[in-house]
């Protein structure tokens, strides 16, 4: 007669313990082998390094004048100087830093709003969801950029924080919709019912049951919000509607254009910021696609 | 002899090693035979079904051959199998009802499918209509979207479609598992009718439900942990099972009329072994009440009577 | 103990609820302590909706469900929590019932924090051990593991152990074994028999007639939201009086008995009341003591 203990474990079932370690190992393995993720992450991290460390290599004031005017890149001035005589490299690293700050902050604001609305609408359903969906759709349809331009023109945007909040307040709808959709499908799972049957209330269910199952999804949403915010901020800054006392990549390009850098042939003034924005946003998006493949085994090509 | 499988081993490659889902199976299916392939989850029956038509890119054929009407099937070759798929070997997968593209009218979907196989839709239309009529549907189905049909109608459409080119081998993978009792019966009877009308030559019905197999199958093949365990006619298997696993399995099925208070049924304790590192010897021995010393040696799948096979030392020794 | 009276559930679909689907219509029955009632129906019969309403995961549109005399609709949030201390559910898909990011212990821990906060660690361990033993699970085989590391059978049994921790009076078992392998099904089913012996009332929801017959005292046949037939199991199975039940029974594939009929339950002829029969307000008339059969209205034909 076979004892139940032996029967349950069986031969070869010792595999069960390493399986949990195996799952994380498997995710990491795919992560490091995913070209898109590696490339995207490298680009973003490189730019981040420049943004963090760069300012230590230059003077503390990117607006400072007094340098020789219109110099091309040299060993003194790595990115050359602007027409009125400012250090482009100094502006570049401070501008890059601003992009990261605004991007992260705006993504946080938009993400929090999107999560709140998406989770509640998706979980509660019914009339609550109908109202929140209407709200989301209305804000979604508003031409964000036009609104931002108008608002920024009237309220002078003085700091990165206020710029970030403004952008965050207008870019949450798609995140809310995406999170709502995911929440719908998760809320139908039995373990959510089970939590209710254990006497748990809405907030606890959403935070403890639903959100953890969406952690990778939320991460992806955040990255996309980050990229989008950087782009929107750059646009606003380029139009001269961003904070004028804080250096940003968009502001650099704005000043380059108003000083006729293109005609003067001062390419070192507007090309670095342009490339930086493209690389940052592009890198984030590519990273996102790669991460999606890592998180969703079904998308993997192997 | 329609289908001859010889020592087929199909494994899945994973990061942790090869999962030996199918580990050396040999059997034949004759013309006009409906063979039931039964077993529980992880026994390898779905792998067998999929490998005969090469539907899953993650599996690879380690060893073994399969011959259909005397021609060897190129099981490892995707392109090679293309010539056989749908024409000679066809499959009706589980949840076939949800397999239809919701934004295509049925007729359009069928014509696209036939085009991809190099068959003219217009030429096949009369036969298609005739067969739809046989299962109780009419041509108007072709003009509708899947959502307009009931579950039963979709199931019947898919079955007609799968057998349209009169394949030699039809694989029905868990066709009845998700269905209601009434639809189950209709679908199972349709399989028999298709065989009777010679739309298909031989059929392999993959399921865990032995009672359905008793109704429609000629022979039943029982699988466990990647190996063949017993084979016989449907009546033989259900009334006189030889292998302990089959006996225990049948003993755990409640029939209408049997009540808990009268006779308490028991299941089989334990779980099937992991197929990453299968145990040596008989794979059932950890859960078998008749296990003894000889069982550390793997029992071969031998013919104990004409048409009757079993892999157990108690039976064959 | 648990009673449903004229329960109807209408779902509103579409934007702001313009369209309606009737899932359950005028269903009434009762379950006593220690009684197992099978709710048998095909897909779309409304059986899962009935289970959800009993668990208060959904609310009836009309009609009342009462437990020990109290109407569920009147329960406050705190009273609902207490209700769940007496009534629990086990669902069909074991892998969906457990949150995959947590270990399985958590479902037990949730019960402890919500209902047994006063227990000391040793008391908790003892109670846990008893519950696991009652479902034939070894603590070291299941505790500390993630759901994907256990089998469907183990997970379902753990769910029942969880219900036992609460010392429930009533269990809603919604297709709890249909996703399990044949060899483990019967063991989980036998557990329900053990629960019954403890005096727990069980609503066994299934589409499988042979399982219903095996385990239950009373059987309810549900068809498109309405009761078709209802009564003690031996009577319903031994003397099926509604055409739908008869066709359904004839379509069940059985070992040792081939299908003999071509009757299609979905096209079952209309059942009408025999002359002189008294039809109750729930549309049922009594065929035999305690054995009721529905009269089909015109549109059901």
Q: How confident is the prediction overall: mean pLDDT of chain A?
A: 83
Cα shape of chain A:
elongated
Give me the CATH architecture of chain A, please: Orthogonal Bundle
Q: Identify the biggest protein-protein contact and residues per side.
A: B-C, 40 and 38 residues
Note the overall shape of chain B. globular
**Helicity range of the residues of chain A?**
over 70%
User: How is the main sheet of chain A built?
Assistant: none
Give the mean pLDDT of chain B: 85
Task: Give the topology.
The complex is a heterotrimer of chains A (302), B (317) and C (301).
Chain A: H1 4-9, H2 16-33, H3 35-53, H4 88-124, H5 126-141, H6 144-154, H7 160-170, H8 173-187, H9 190-197, H10 202-213, H11 215-238, H12 249-258, H13 261-264, H14 267-295
Chain B: E1 3-14, E2 17-29, E3 34-38, H1 45-53, E4 59-68, E5 71-72, H2 78-82, E6 89-92, H3 106-116, H4 121-134, H5 151-162, E7 169-173, H6 181-196, E8 202-207, H7 210-216, E9 219-224, E10 227-233, H8 234-239, H9 244-251, E11 302-305, E12 308-310, H10 313-316
Parallel strand pairs in B: 3-8, 3-9, 6-7, 7-8
Antiparallel strand pairs in B: 1-2, 1-4, 4-5, 9-10, 10-12, 11-12
Chain C: E1 2-13, E2 19-31, E3 36-41, H1 47-54, E4 62-67, E5 70-71, H2 77-84, E6 87-90, H3 94-97, H4 105-115, H5 121-134, H6 139-142, H7 152-165, E7 170-174, H8 182-197, E8 201-206, H9 209-215, E9 218-223, E10 226-232, H10 233-238, H11 243-251, E11 284-288, E12 291-294
Parallel strand pairs in C: 3-8, 3-9, 6-7, 7-8
Antiparallel strand pairs in C: 1-2, 1-4, 4-5, 9-10, 10-12, 11-12
